[in-house]
Amino acid sequence: MNIVAFIPARSGSKSIPGKNIKPLGGKPLIAWTIESIPANLIPRIVVNTDGEEIAEVAKQYGVEVMMRPTSLSGDKTSMLEVLRSEVAKLNPQPDAIMLLQPTVPFRNSFHVKMAIEMLRSSWEKYDSVITVERIPEKYHPMLAIMGTQGGNQMIFVKLSGLWDKVKSLFGAKNYEGPSLTGYPISRRVTRRQDHPEAWVPTGSVYLFKTSNLKSGSFYGDKVMLMEVEPTININDPDDFEEAEQYLINKENGNNR
Fold this sequence. Notes:
Layout: E1 3-9, E2 23-24, E3 27-28, H1 29-35, E4 44-49, H2 52-60, E5 64-67, H3 79-87, E6 96-99, H4 109-121, E7 128-134, E8 146-147, H5 162-170, E9 180-181, E10 199-209, E11 223-227, H6 237-251
Parallel strand pairs: 1-4, 1-6, 4-5, 7-11
Antiparallel strand pairs: 2-3, 6-10, 7-10, 8-9
């Protein structure tokens, strides 16, 4: 199974300027991902970026760089769009792609190895492997009540005439009927013990067949889930501070 490790690293982060090369624990953020890849299992590592500074840092760590066109560098561009365009440029075409996001720095190399073995041994049956973490019971999706997208709608407790005053001040709207979504309340399971198991992707490892990109999803139809411990995913300054504190605690021999 010929695999390419594909690291997407866009330069235009708004939440943390220069995020992908911002120093974390004495080295650029992207370096944590590069160094988590077992070279004996994935000899070809490609950093796909639109930023010259990111490209230079990636080259310093000895990996291949693929410059992404500006048309695929907007914050509204989907990962599927990037993968479809950029993976098609790889020569030769790999059997599988391991998508590794640099915003997940503390990836366990053992999980990378396990994902490869899982897909290799189940190649005829499955299309991809992703790492997931279990959703805590109080956040179970069957308990969620969601508002519709769009607008600045807000939910307030309606307390007689006070509600009308709040609405006039904040422009809030009542959520009624179909504007509240989620699993239908009338069909919800009341006993938590009866809730189905639920997970959310950790973002640390996505391994999939290259041929999946011809469809509408890089996951394919048959996905294997590898449950792992929760990890830090850096999306905003608070996450970055958490990552720095994690390293300090680790150096001092403390648990996170």
